[in-house]
Amino acid sequence: MRKSPTACAVCGRASLPGSRWCAQHQTETQRGVHRDHDEVEAMYQTPRWRTFRGWIIRQNPMCQRIQKNGEQCHEPAKIVHHLWSPRQRPDLFIVPSNVVCLCANDHPTDEGTPAWREGVDYVRTEFVLPSF
User: Fold this and answer.
1) pTM for this structure?
2) Alpha-carbon distance values, 105 to 47, 78, 119 (Å)
């Protein structure tokens, strides 16, 4: 039986067959950037993150990056990007104001982008807790 594709353990893009990472992060993993015993990597594997990521993507389905022409990107969001990297601010890991939903083209290679400004670099993240 064939397995369905899984999401990259780092960015959420489609992972390579038989891997936990996309092409970009597979290369970094081979260089030793990402390791299974990494505390931040482990945070991305929790049900808490997966639930939070799902809520954020559903409420912000379009890429939130503002392009050079001043318009919001029209591509579907695939990645939940942290403005402050969890390596620097783990306390902001699941804080809606610290994340933006981006398409793969607009996802920066840097870990975190704290210099980004709402309304200039990205549109505000919408987030309302689901009611049960």
Assistant:
1) 0.71
2) 27, 10, 19
Which residues have a Cβ under 8 Å from the Cβ of 124 and sit 6 or more positions away? 64, 118
Domain range list for the chain: 1-36, 46-132
> Which residue would you say has higher pLDDT here, 82 or 5?
82
Adjacent-strand bridge partners of 118: 122
Q: Let me know how many helices (H) and strands (E) the chain has, helices first.
A: 3, 2
Beta bridge partners, 79, equal 102
- Tell me the HSE value of 78 on the side-chain side, using a 13 A CA sphere: 18
Instruction: Dump pLDDT digits (tens) for 2-12.
Output: 555 677 777 77
